[in-house]
Write a structure and sequence with these properties.
By secondary structure, the chain is an alpha+beta fold. The chain contains 17 helices and 11 strands. About 1% of the residues have low confidence.
Length: 414
């Protein structure tokens, strides 16, 4: 066992992480399973890099998401008002169990499957607007609006309330360090947005998830008002944010690896396996949400004191050759089962079935419509969001250059 007083101390350059996260995390992973680092907030944290340790830690009940278990004066995270902060990403059982059970009914296999036809219809409508264009930004025109429409329809957000949502979310999740006021403004806008939305839904309930949650709050008294608003906030932000990047990263990876795209076009039965591999290869979440040990615990042979911040690197775990042979290679035929892109344990993503289905529909519709789709810039020139919390593209410039035909994902083998 490693000496608990002397784990590797590693400097992590945020700029280098943005440019080459897999290279940086890979170097750290091979140097040791756990590192004492200085985070982007200037405070110390423990970074876990190897697959087995990350997976075990994700399911360890001694690693709390509740910020009240953080060492006083240590952790400083995203500052949200109580009305948005009482969400599942800050909760442990039993509150986590109680609230998760309420919202899980919206994501049962049957209810998710019922969304398949509407999602495909939305995807086709968005793609209609791209026909005949020489070059388009696939994030702005397709990968972003598709999940926004889907999750807003699920929650019951009116069309008139959706216009500014992406800008607010981007400012919150990937804040501009030179303009910190934008994140604060986004929080205020989101709080006003949900306050008005809940007021409207109380006055005019409908057949949607938010109306159902309001009924649970008002009629059954199983949610506090802060929990209600925080839950709506989390479902909307998480349902949009991660799926946008899952779709965008998947399209970019396939276009950068034409042999893999050709294999997928040749055998549409590979689609489900391809989605898992794409999530492993370049997933939307490089780091799991921070955790705080409720007691001194040993991770990877290193003792981590109670209350200190633990960061679990999904990006490093997904490129760990101990778990995934030749991990830096995209291989849609690979069995990538066991990847952690959608979590593990009690905090496994509630919307995982919906995210998988949306991604599959998005890829199928896109490559069926535009079989000649290509990147408009070299892969290394694609610009990423400067964020450690999420991995996504600022833009994905592509040339549609294709007509509907038999060479999309539904093409026969050969």
């Amino acid at each position: 066992m490693s000496n608990p007083t002397s784990p590797p101390k590693s400097a992590v350059d945020p700029g280098e992480l943005f440019e080459d996260p897999y290279g940086v995390y890979g170097r750290l992973r091979e140097e040791g399973p756990v590192h004492r680092i200085t985070g982007t907030d200037g405070l110390p944290a423990w970074l876990v890099t190897r697959y087995d340790d990350v997976r075990q830690a994700l399911a360890d009940p001694r690693l709390s998401l509740d910020k009240r278990n953080a060492t006083q004066g240590g952790y400083r995270g995203m500052s949200l008002p109580p009305a948005l902060d009482a969400n599942l990403l800050n909760m442990d059982p039993p509150d986590h169990t109680r609230i998760r059970r309420m919202v899980s009914k919206a994501f049962t296999p049957r209810r998710v499957e019922a969304l398949r036809v509407p999602i495909r219809r939305t995807a086709d409508r968005l793609l209609d607007s791209l026909s005949g264009q020489d070059e388009v930004d696939l994030i702005a025109s397709y990968a972003a609006p598709l999940p926004i429409i889907v999750i807003c329809d699920l929650l019951g957000v009116p069309q008139t309330r959706r216009a500014d949502f992406r800008a607010w979310t981007d400012a919150l999740v990937a804040p501009d360090p030179t303009r910190p006021e934008r994140a604060r403004e986004a929080v205020g806008s989101l709080l006003s947005f949900f306050t008005r939305l809940i007021t409207d839904k109380r006055a005019r309930p409908a057949d949607d998830l938010l109306s159902a949650l309001i009924a649970v709050r008002d009629q059954e008294d199983r949610l506090s008002e802060d929990e209600l608003m925080s839950l709506a906030f989390l479902v909307l932000v998480a349902g949009y944010e991660n799926t946008v990047h899952l779709i965008g990263n998947a399209v970019a990876a396939l276009l950068a690896h034409p042999e893999q795209l050709a294999a997928l076009r040749a055998d549409a039965a590979l689609l489900d396996r391809a989605i898992e591999e794409l999530a492993r290869y370049d997933g939307p979440v490089p780091l799991a949400i921070r955790r705080f040990p409720t007691e001194d615990i040993v991770i990877g042979g290193v003792t981590v004191p109670a209350g200190e911040t633990v960061l679990l690197s999904l990006a490093a775990a997904h490129r760990d050759p101990r778990r995934f042979p030749d991990p830096d290679r995209l291989d849609i035929g690979r069995d990538a089962g066991g990847h952690l892109a959608l979590g593990h344990g009690i905090h496994y993503c509630l919307g995982a079935p919906l995210a998988r289905m949306e991604t599959g529909i998005a890829l199928t519709a896109l490559f069926d419509r535009f079989p000649g789709l290509s990147l408009a810039v070299p892969p290394h020139d694609l610009r990423r969001r400067p964020s450690m919390r999420s991995r996504g593209l600022l833009a994905l410039p592509v040339r549609p250059a294709g007509r509907p035909g038999r060479s999309g994902l539904h093409a026969p083998a050969g």
